[in-house]
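Quick one, tokens below. Sequence please?
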């Protein structure tokens, strides 16, 4: 059975966030979008970029007739009050919506790594 590819965020000791690649290496997490550049694109620019992208396929009526919504299984969450450094909370919040989900992903990645290192 083919294993699903999972993106893992890793918090380094110096506070940087990296993304674990399938080969085990890490690359810096790309944060933010150059919205000024995006806003300056014309519809023709966007269409040309999409058509030039080999991973971009046109979505015709046949595609939408077969399309469905896929929900990932919900993992039970538990509310837990925590005292965290203001700098940590401010950094995650500055990344925008979904900051708590990303913080959870970083913590979960740490737990999984520790389980592998200390069976």
């Amino acid at each position: 059975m083919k294993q699903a590819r999972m993106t893992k965020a890793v918090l380094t000791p110096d506070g940087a966030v990296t993304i674990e690649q399938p080969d085990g290496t890490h690359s810096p997490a790309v944060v933010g979008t150059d919205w000024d550049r995006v806003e300056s694109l014309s519809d023709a620019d966007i269409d040309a970029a999409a058509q030039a992208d080999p991973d971009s396929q046109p979505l015709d009526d046949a595609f939408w007739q077969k399309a469905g919504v896929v929900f990932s299984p919900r993992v039970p969450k538990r509310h837990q009050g925590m005292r965290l450094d203001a700098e940590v909370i401010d950094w995650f919040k500055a990344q925008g919506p979904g900051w708590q989900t990303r913080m959870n992903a970083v913590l979960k990645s740490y737990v999984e790594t520790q389980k592998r290192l200390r069976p």
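The first helix runs from residue 35 to 40. The chain has a mean pLDDT of 82.
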